[in-house]
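Review form for a predicted model. The reviewer records the input and the model, then writes brief findings.
Reviewer: anonymous (R2)
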Amino acid sequence: MIALYDRLTGWVSSKVPESIMLLFVRIALAGIFWRSGQTKIEEGTWFTISDTTYFLFSEEYNGVPLPSDFAAVMATVSEHVFPILLVLGLLTRLSAFALLGMTVVIQIFVYPDAWWPVHSLWVALALVLIVRGGGFFSLDTPLLKRTRP
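Model under review:
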């Protein structure tokens, strides 16, 4: 029985199953931030930040220690660029680290009561990607093969 368990755990932690899991984690984390980013732009535009977004950053999110207009633009850009990079598996660790940073800022300065269960899950997803990378099914894989001897 232990041998069977060992074989199963060995297979589940091998390259392909782990890479499928990392792809799923990348898509899940990207989806959270992408949907948030989409709420910040005018409907029907490619990337026009809405007046509501500027208002929210000046009023509701005013605890963020950055100028509100700058914070609105940075958050909106980040919530679009880093999720795209995550889905592609390009600069996965950097993208996950950036979204982890955003999560920490949101936790500390915007919604301090949202640690459990919301932000703790975002942190867990980001940490998995920071530690493990994008996996075999990412653009990081062929790029790293080209740069490493």
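Findings: The radius of gyration is 18 Å.
Further findings: The chain has one domain: 23-147.
Recommendation: see findings above.
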